[in-house]
Design brief:
about 325 residues, alpha+beta, 4-stranded antiparallel β-sheet, 3-stranded antiparallel β-sheet, about 15% strand
Length: about 325
């Protein structure tokens, strides 16, 4: 009986016109896409049963890219736990893997990943996203300040010892932020860690270089290269503080006290003369720039603006040494 009633009901329905059939297919397809979209969105937000917040906690390397409503948000200009950072540098990204050293974003050796933040895609730290109330601004974007707790966490065990062996305290160091022209002629951000005694010198010198559009390929903390001086030089990175010895000695370098800086090091190598009259050139593959009688771009000599500015500020230049030549190197003696 019920079967016959159902057949009569079907026959009583109006026949679909070709246009009606087309409309039915169209709206049916739209409905199917909507259902599929909701399904995918639900899976993305739950990550196999996890909320987005839980997924972020389980994957700290993604913290800066996850936006979670509710909970503790990072305050402007600072950070909260692993919630990401904001600062005056480029947006802090969370992909700690860089490109190769030729692009200045090589294997940055960020093996100390227990810090609450990571460097940006350009290798900048922004002092850990924290602006100090003790910041000293020389010109817009040219400033120095004490190291933030985040930055201290980043460099400890890398460019700064993780034991009590250091002969300089973290409180004696400053974070320095600058602007510079890179080799493509574009304005780029740069940052250094230095002894607080030369921080004012550095912002003044680098501001003069900036206004003259002096080219610096990159200015990144040595920690971006896992505190490996050779890797940093190969990338032609201008850097300052690195708690290390002078090569092949047990004597601390002036870099260990934040009182020395290496500028465009690949084009201005360190040359050590051997007893047999030979030369040891560092970094390797920069031999073409060891002959200072030749003319080439980015060469630092006594007439170069960079050299003249550092000398005016009381620094000495490694290019004037006798037993070796360190054309990239400027250092200052502090009483």
């Amino acid at each position: 009986m019920k079967k016959n009633v159902w057949k009569k009901y079907i026959k009583s329905l109006p026949k679909l016109t070709p246009a009606g059939k087309k409309a039915l297919l169209k709206y049916g397809a739209i409905l199917l896409f909507i259902i599929l979209g909701f399904s995918l969105l639900s899976r993305a937000l739950t990550h196999n049963g996890q909320t987005l917040a839980q997924y972020g906690e389980a994957n700290p390397s993604l913290q800066g890219s996850l936006s979670v409503s509710g909970g503790d948000a990072a305050p402007a200009g600072g950070s909260s736990g692993n919630a990401g950072v904001s600062g005056n540098s480029a947006d802090m990204l969370t992909d700690s893997a860089g490109t190769d050293a030729e692009d200045g974003q090589g294997d940055n050796g960020q093996e100390h990943e227990d810090t609450a933040w990571q460097v940006s895609a350009d290798g900048l730290t922004g002092n850990g996203g924290t602006e100090s109330p003790k910041r000293v601004t020389y010109k817009p974007d040219f400033y120095y300040e004490p190291l933030s707790e985040n930055l201290i966490g980043y460099i400890t065990g890398c460019s700064y010892p993780d034991d009590d062996s250091a002969e300089i305290s973290l409180s004696e160091l400053n974070y320095v932020h600058i602007l510079h022209y890179n080799f493509e002629g574009n304005i780029a951000e740069g940052e250094l860690i230095c002894n607080s005694a030369i921080a004012q010198d550095l912002v003044e010198i680098f501001y003069e270089l900036y206004t003259a559009e002096y080219r610096l390929e990159r200015v990144l903390l040595i920690d971006y290269y896992d505190a490996d001086d050779t890797t940093s030089m190969m990338a032609n990175n201008t850097s300052c503080f690195n708690y290390r010895n002078i090569d092949d000695t047990d004597k601390l370098s002036r870099h260990a006290f934040g009182l020395a800086i290496d500028v465009n090091p690949f084009y201005n190598p360190y040359i050590r003369f051997t007893k047999d009259g030979g030369q040891i050139i560092s970094p390797e593959s920069s031999e073409a720039y060891a002959d200072r009688t030749q003319s080439f771009p980015y060469k630092i000599d006594a007439d170069d603006l960079c050299c003249r500015l550092f000398l005016e500020h009381g620094f000495t230049w490694g290019g004037n040494w006798n037993s070796s030549k360190d054309y990239q190197h400027f250092q200052k003696i502090i009483d």
